[in-house]
Fold:
Amino acid sequence: MSRIGKQPVAVPSGVDVSISGNSITVKGPHGELTHAAHPRMKVVFDADGRKVEVKRPDDQRENRALHGLTRALINNMVAGVQKPFVKRLEVVGVGYQASLSGNVLSLQVGYANTVKLPIPPRVLCDVPAPTTIEIKSIDKQAVGQFAAEIRNVRPPEPYKGKGIRYQGEYVRRKAGKAFGSGG
Structure:
């Protein structure tokens, strides 16, 4: 049995869960999320015990994978409506900076043109400093996807470490070409 899938998802007070067919809706203080579970997974909400359980029909490989996945997605929905997910990115490099104008994130990261990325719906973006980007949303997948798209504009390079990286990300540095003794 899936170790993750068999654990029930605890639903705290202030969060409402409703299930109709294979559609799960979670409402909380920060918003509402809906997810359509796979038809083979059976999702049950125990209102008395305040928990959601996911059951699978058999032990086939695909069903075992879907079991843990479905439970993890529901857990992320419950966690997201309570406290939004946050990712922070750092812009490293001389003259590299980010700015926000309306619903567009502008990045100046060493290209001839400024790279403009539209901010997806239900995602909040903030630029507290020109070298820091903060992405917030109740949807964990949306936060991670937009952060990956921003990082992909200029990933950190190993020689000088310039580029866009996640906060706290370790960039392995390489030694450059050695100058001297021509010969």
